[in-house]
Amino acid sequence: MPFDDQDVHYEVFDQRLPNGLRVVVNPDPIAPGVAVNLWYRVGSSEEPLGATGFAHLFEHLMFAGSANVASGEHLAAIQAVGGSANATTSFDRTNYFETVGPHALELALWLEADRMSTLTVDAANLETQRDVVKEEKRQRYDNIPYGDQFELLLDLNFGADHPYGHPAIGSMTDLDAATLNDVQNFYRRWYQPSGAVLTLSGPITISQAMELAERYFGSLPNTPVPESAQAPPLTPHTGHPELVVHREVPRPMLHLCWRTPALTHPDRLAVDLLLSVLGEGQASRLHRTMVRDQELAEGLGTYDLGLAKQASLAMITSRPREDVNLDQLIPPVFETLAAIADGNLDDRELERAKAGYEREWLAGLAPVEERADQLGFYTTHFDDPTRINSEFAEIQAVTADDISAVARRWFDPAAAATLRYEIQE
Amino acid sequence: MGNTPRPGIGTPHGWFFPDAHEFPLDNGAHVWIHDLPGQHVVSVAVVLDLPASCEPSRMEGLGMIVARTSDEGTLQYPGHQLAEAVESLGAVYGASARMSSTIVQMEVPSAKLAPALDLLAEIIWNPAHEACDIERHLALRTAEIDQARIHPGSLVQLGLQRALLASATRIGRPLGGLPETVRAITREEVIRYHQRWWRPDGATIIVAGSLPPNIDDLVAASFAGWEPGGRRALHQLTQPATPRPHAIVIDRPEAVQADIRIGAPGPDRHDPDWAALEVAACAMGGSFSSRLNTVLREEKGYTYGAHASFHPYRNRGSFVIQTSCRTEVTADVVTEALRIADLTAAPLTSTEIIDARNYLLGIAPLHFATAGAIAGQSADMASAGLPTLWLNSHQQRVAAVDADAATESFTKIIDSGQLTTVICGDAEQLVPALTAKGLAPVVWSSEKLFELP
């Protein structure tokens, strides 16, 4: 709790326009700017095989012009009024956002509405943005050491034909095959008011926000978007799937992976806390054992991708010290998980994980752009933006027994898949 | 759609970097307090007046090792107990050695600020520096250098540093040391460096966030026992490399992309042209619609992004254009970037300067919306030897820059014919292409960057 001992509580208003656009408002009179954040319920998991990378390419094209906005003008106009704008694509959604001073809020809304209603990509800027995406892939993945790990992990854990089996950047061969017709079809299929959540957070009242949302988005038609593709149900791994690759890197790496429950599953928060207890901070179990006491690892991390459809993916990643081989990194992880599954968890460990979570939670929600993004997340995946005020209490309520139970259910050593990233001799 | 006309833009609110309440401690440290209601995570930064030039030259990287081992246990909280105490508060600790200072930081929910300040003071005064922890961190630093040897971003940065700055001064050599100097670091020197230099003399203690009314007393009580060492560090004058090479390729065979830096030595924030230079660099490569990004990304599709900016050090600085692109268009990209850097041929326009000014002035309140960002800015100011509110006077100067001033300042300080181009990529393909464009690069092996100059 903050020093004044008051609960941190965010005012949240949530209403649909008649055309289906869901508008979430979080008034914050002392914030310096207003965050405008649109979540469209389409990500790389909606892409069929042969059309991977399309949702992300599309993110670029959404800056390439609409009926009243020239290519590149969207970002230029926002920056010229002292604001920031960008977009990101992940598995389950594509996200567009601006933060502007209150004096330029209407410009941001008008720009977003213009590209929600029209897209005017031509062959030339499709070609240019395809090249830009190829450079993005080279810069972020192909040209850097260990750059193919993420793709390998998805393939190992989901299989190439699963909706989560490929990264959002996609295949460049697939991108080369995309036509202007594909672009317009994808656009009309997914980019509709009824497929979007518009969140406004900052110095604005609810009535002002709703009036502006109605003014700029209200005239757009109500056209339904498809239901999200349902991923096939996935059960925990069996038979110890393993992928071994050899690359020119200075040190090998080991990823131990488990299929975990989707982000709306009741076990979700306990899984997140278990991963914190294992690997978040220097006092965490595995850091202490593997990095500090036994000096087996240079470092380690625990992650979960937080996926929405049927299953998610958790990873425990470590890099061995010189003269330590990858096999030596496995027993401490499995032994620690088995111990926690047996109920060997100190309350103080759990309290530390919760205290760290509190700091990240408070710091993460401090700027309006991150708060608006989190509201879009809760609205899209939980159908409830007010979860921003209740999730922290749910975290506090997780017990050591809950952690042991999720360790047993989801982190059985027999259900692990292994990516061994070895040095090419 | 199309029936809602494009809205006009209102007048932006005025904005100022938040005031600091400042007071000295008896031991020589200065305290800057930013009380920011609603910021429930408090950010504390202690800026030690400790340039990397204080390291013994045969043990460069020592300052980084002292910082990294500072939280591996203290006299009062040995071994694991320290990390447990920090994390029980929900706090996170970090220390980093920079060229002009070492910064020790803690972030903590405001309810736990008082015990966090005591822990931070304990870490600063009484680190245990156990031999096993120092050996482990030396091994990890060596492993980190091994990673840098094959990472294009690290290689091109090291190459640029060596190309622009004289290796006779500390700032011209790698901050974290070289394999040979890291190997030479001993526990004895770690302890000696800490005892001599982690002192309140010239230090600045910055606290930003939602604070209790007795914050001054809390800070004073936590840090009152920190004893001065009686010495102040000397800050070296940055020296540019002479002669400066024209073009360098750091060979990374079979790289699928070329990482490009084009730069020159530049001034620091004290320069009377600083505001005009910042505005000029923003119009050239600081925003999406800047000249570099418009041509290289949006028109030609050569790159994911192209940027230009001035980087101030405590004294003097550098100007750097940064981009990366596929190997086969690299020579064209460099030629285009050099053409764009020549403002004598195409002076900046009023429209460009108005947009750049509005961007720089308008983005500041959005950027400084959190306690962490405000503490970070004040820490930068303390590191640079500037007052906490420097940004406010700078913003006024930015608002007064016009197109002529921006162009004149830039062309006066940056001679586009004397820029140094450093590229990390596949030399076998890059050298002939660059030579054909008249750039005739010298080739450096990546190993050269990890040897003593």
Low-confidence stretches of chain A are 1-5
- Taking the alpha carbons of the first and last residues of chain A, their distance comes to 53 Å
Look up the CATH topology of the largest domain in chain A.
Cytochrome Bc1 Complex, Chain A, domain 1
- Largest chain-chain contact? A-B, 84 and 84 residues
Name given to the CATH homologous superfamily of the largest domain in chain A: Metalloenzyme, LuxS/M16 peptidase-like
Please give the order of strands in the largest beta sheet of chain B: 1-2-6-3-5-4
Q: Based on helices, strands and strand pairing, what is the structural class of chain A?
A: alpha+beta
> What general form of chain A does the structure show?
globular
What is the β-strand count of chain B? 12
Q: Look at the structure and give the mean pLDDT of chain A.
A: 95
- Ranges of chain B where pLDDT stays below 50 over 5 or more residues in a row are none
Order of helices and strands of chain B: EEEHHEEHHHHHEHEEHHEEHHHHHEHE
Q: Give the helix proportion of chain A (percent range).
A: 40-55%
CATH architecture of the largest domain in chain A: 2-Layer Sandwich
Helix content of chain B: 25-40%
Number of domains of chain B: 2
